[in-house]
Amino acid sequence: MNAQSPDRGSVLDTLKSLFGERLSTSLAVREHHGRDITHPIAQAPDAVAFPENTAEVVQVLKACHAARMPVIAFGVGTSLEGHILAPRGGVCVDFSRMNQVIAVNERDLDVTVQPGVTREALNEYLRDTGLFFPIDPGANATIGGMAATRASGTNAVRYGTMRENVLALEVVLADGSVIRTGTRARKSAAGYDLTRLFVGSEGTLGVITAVTLRVYGLPEAMSAAVCSFDALGGAVDTVIETIQLGIPVARIELLDELMIRAVNQYSKLSLKEAPTLFLEFHGTEAAVKEQATMVAEIAREHGGHGFEWALKQEDRSRLWKARHDAAWAALAMRPGATSLATDVCVPISRLAECILETRRDLDTSRIPAPIVGHVGDGNFHLVLLVNRDDPTEVAEADRLNERLVRRALAMGGTCTGEHGIGLGKQQFLIEEAGESAVSLMRRIKSSFDPHSILNPGKIFA
């Protein structure tokens, strides 16, 4: 901070005069905004602002830019890599009041929303239009947060990730200037692709204040199923063959026997405790039937049996809610534990090798760690259930995580398929991308945010 810069106290006074009761310095509010699902100890901001429009976001950025004060964007707090923690204090910008659908263009299959709209709220809004937004990370995350972390989830195998489904953005830069990237056109060759640069930037390059998304027509028919397997390898081989044959499955999720046990207990299901695939098919009645028949035959060849179908909407919803609650189900298996959620992704041809080698590691460890994954695109997770008061367990969890990540990197994969880098994977980013590429990323960050006020400490140490 130079001699002419206002101090943090005067910045908060200025923002208080602008926002009134919508600027909170309450300890409870600040601590709520300074922790995420896997970081139970809060690193709280100095204040939390609740803007209602882009102009108010601009006011926050201009005031904080002048004081070199950090700014952290906040959706609903469902990130997993410490993205919303405030290790240097600053102002958290909570987008819960910027939660409006701005425009729906049914004929063009796109919508524009404010960043605080959640994915479930958007689909509820679209319900009567015959359209839906397919990106489903499990949590009811905000669209702004999903864009910032390049989210994906259970439908990504068919519909892609946020990278493929964000058409345009409105972004407030560090100095308070506003830019718009992209258009509603489905392709463009005009200049640098700034939209893709901001998608996945984890709030370090700008603050997203509007998002234009692709949406899709609701399929004529949907069916869901679960299928158990004699062995984990058979389930994974079924996934690989399904993808390699080009069968357009909408969702194909893997839960190992430990995760099935947790899901049964938590969601009151009675699935066989064995490696299990959760599947969903979208299309016409005939196409869905054909896809399901083909996958069932592949599964049988790999030791799959007991296909159980969920055709009614309420049955499908119950099944997928159980899948989405898997993280909470795992935590319920070991009361008092916290979860270290891993997030690797490998080429589909290496998926079986990666998962089975990981299983061998887990079989020699005393830490419970169910396996669950969006395996249709090579992405899977361990939920390491750790007693953080036990240094031996913390060290063991870190060891297992490092072995998994380096295994994935050696197979041509990535240290994070969807969670992002945040605080926890900065060294792995260097190992994955190389020093030269990360140095270029730092220079990009510096050109957008020369005083490093935007979510400082994330992605780069």
Question: Can you describe this structure?
Answer:
With 461 residues, the protein is an alpha+beta fold. Among the domains are: 8-94, Uridine Diphospho-n-acetylenolpyruvylglucosamine Reductase, domain 2; 109-121 and 132-217, 2-Layer Sandwich (Uridine Diphospho-n-acetylenolpyruvylglucosamine Reductase, domain 3), CATH 3.30.465; 219-327, Alpha-Beta Plaits. Helices cover 38% and strands 20% of the residues. It is built from 17 helices and 19 strands. The protein has helices at residues 8-19, 27-32, 54-67, 119-126, 143-148, 156-159, 162-165, 194-198, 232-244, 257-267, 285-301, 313-324, 326-333, 351-363, 391-410, 426-433, 435-448; strands at residues 23-24, 47-49, 71-74, 91-94, 101-105, 110-113, 131-132, 166-172, 178-182, 207-214, 216-217, 221-229, 251-255, 276-283, 304-310, 338-341, 344-345, 371-374, 379-386.
For this entry, give a set of tags:
461 residues, alpha+beta, Uridine Diphospho-n-acetylenolpyruvylglucosamine Reductase, domain 2, Uridine Diphospho-n-acetylenolpyruvylglucosamine Reductase, domain 3, Alpha-Beta Plaits, five-stranded antiparallel beta sheet, 17 helices, 38% helix
